[in-house]
Write a structure and sequence with these properties.
heterodimer, A: alpha/beta, Rossmann fold, six-stranded mixed beta sheet, four-stranded antiparallel beta sheet, globular, B: alpha+beta, 2 domains, six-stranded mixed barrel, two-stranded antiparallel ribbon
Amino acid sequence: MIELREVSRIFHVGGQEVRAMDRISLTIEPGEYLSIMGPSGSGKSTLLNTLGLLDTPDSGTYLLEGQDVTSLSDSQLAATRSRTIGFIFQFFHLIPRLTAQQNIELPLLLAGVPRRERNQRSSPLIEAFGLAARHHHKPDELSGGQRQRVAIARAVINRPTVLLADEPTGNLDRHSGGEIIELMEQLNRDGLTLVVVTHDPEIGERARRRIRVVDGRIASDTREG
Amino acid sequence: MRPFDAIGFALTSLGSNRVRTLLMLLAMSIGVAAVVLLTGIGNGARLYIVDQFSSLGTNLVIVIPGRAETASNTPATLVGETPRDLTMGDAKALARGDVVLRLAPLNIGEANIAWRGKNREVPLLGSTASLLEIHHLKMDRGAFLPEEDMEIARPVCVIGAKVYRELFGQENALGELVNLGGFRCRVIGILGSQGRSLGFDTEELVVVPVAFAQMLLNTEGLFRILLEAKDIGAIDRLKAHIKTTVAKRHYGEEDVTIITQDSVLATFDKIFKVLTLTVAGIAGISLVVAGILIMNVMLMAVAQRTAEIGLCKALGAGQLQIMALLVTEALLLSVIGGLIGLGLGFLGSWIAVQFYPTLQTPPPTWAVAAALGTAIGTGFIFSLMPARRAARLDPIQALARH
C-alpha cells in the first residue's frame, strides 16, 4: 500500500518558486489501476518520480508498505526500489549494446542474482511477452512495441508490487500503444498495482481510478463503479 | 552485483566503443612498456658494469699514495710538498702479510721505444710478474716478466700487440734488443690483445720490471700498489694489514688511500641504480599521463551514458554500485593495457638483446610490479572522480536526457 501525507516538492527555477507538489495526500491500495493526467508542468511526473523513490519530497510523509521512506539513505532507497517498484518510460531506456534478454535481466544483474537464475526468470517473461524470436537482438533491431515490451519485462522481472509508467505509449503508434496498455492491464489483473501517467485521455480513461493534477494539487480523484 | 557480472557489463561497455577503448589501451600499454624497457636497459647496463669490474678480481685492494680525503688540508700541501711517496720498500713490507695472495707494484709513464730506426712513444708500465695474474693479462707469445726480486732492474720488456706490429711488422721480436728511453732492453714477450684494462689499451702497452721503470722514469715512488687478498673475506684483514704496515713505515701516519674493488663496484652499482630509478620515474610520468587520459575518457563515458546510469539507479543500483561499475571499467582498461605493455616491454628488451647480446636486459621484478601497480593505481584513482560524479547523478535528470 502507498500513502502520501501532505507531501510537497518545491523547485527553484530562475529565482521563481515552482510547487510541483503542493501538500498532496494520496492513498493507493494494492492492486489498484490508477491514471494520473494533467497539463504539462502540472507536477504529474514529479508525483510519479516521488512514488517511484527517484525524487525525495521536501516535506510530508511517504509510507510505502507501511514504511516511512522519506528518511531512508540512498542505498536503502535503491534496495527498496529494486524490490518493490518497476518503471516504464516513454523512451524505453534500453541499453543499446545489450540484447533484449540482457536488458530484461539487468535489474537481476544489479541485484546480484546468478546467471542461471536470471535466465530461469527471464525466459517465461520472454515467452509470455512474445519476444521469443527476438530475445538475442539489440534494441535498435526491435520495433517500438517490442522495445516497450522488453522494458515492461525488465520492469516486472524483479517481481515488484507497483508498476509505474510514464507516458508508456507516448512514443508508439496507436496499434502497438494499445497492445502495450493491454499487456500492462493484464499484469494489473494478476495483482500488480499499476500507475500510468499520460496525456492521452483515451489511455487515461481506461483506468478504474483517475486523478487529475493541476498546479501541484489533486484537482479531481474519480473512481469507476 | 556479482564481480563476474560487473566485469561482463564493463566489457560490453568497452566493446561498444572500440576506438576509445583501443586508444586507452594504447596509452596504458606504452606507459607500462616504457617503464619495463627502460628499467630493463638500465639494469642491464648496471649488471654489465658490475660484471666488468668483477672480472678484474673482486678481492683486489689498491693502495694509492696520499690520503684523498685529507690531502688538501695537510700542512704538507700548504708548503707545496707532495704527500710521501709509496716506495718499493713499502711494497716489499706489504708483501709480507699472511693474507696477501699476490702483490704488484705499479709505475706508469711514457717512454720512447725504437728498433732499427722506427720509434714511437708508448705508455710504460713498471710492475712485477704478479701483474699477469692480478690483471688477467694474456700473453700472445713469449713470457711475461720474470719472477724475481722487484728491486732487480733487469732490462727486459713485454710489448703490446700493436707496438709489436708497428715496430717489427711480421718479423720475430722475441729476444731482439730495442732502445727503450735510451736503454737497451730485450723483448721477452708479446701481450695478447685484450682491449682496455684500467684505462690502458694493452695493445699499446710496454711492460717492464718496476725497478727498471723507476730508472727510466727517474722516480723513487710508486704510482700505486695492487694487492690481492687470499679470499673475499680477508679483505678487511688485508686493509688492516696495509694500514698498520704503512703507519709503521711512515712514522705513524696513514698517508695512503686504500681502494677496494667492492667499494668502486658499490659506487657504480649505486649510480646505475639511481639512473635506472630516474629513467623509470620519467617513464612513470607517462603512466600518470595515461591515468589522466583514463579520467578524461571516463568523464566522457559518464556524460555519454548519463541515461544509462540514471536507468541503473531507477532499476535499483545504489551509488556504490554505480561507482563500482565505472571503476571496474577503468580497472579493466588498466589491467589489459598493463599486460599488453608488459608484453611489449619484454618484446622490446628481447629485441635489444638480439642487437646487443652483451647487454642482458631482464627488467627487474620490482620494475614490472611497479609498472603494473602504477597502471592499476592510476586507473583506479583517476576513475574515482568520474565514478563519483556518475553515482551522484540525479536519476530524474539523467533519464530526462536521451
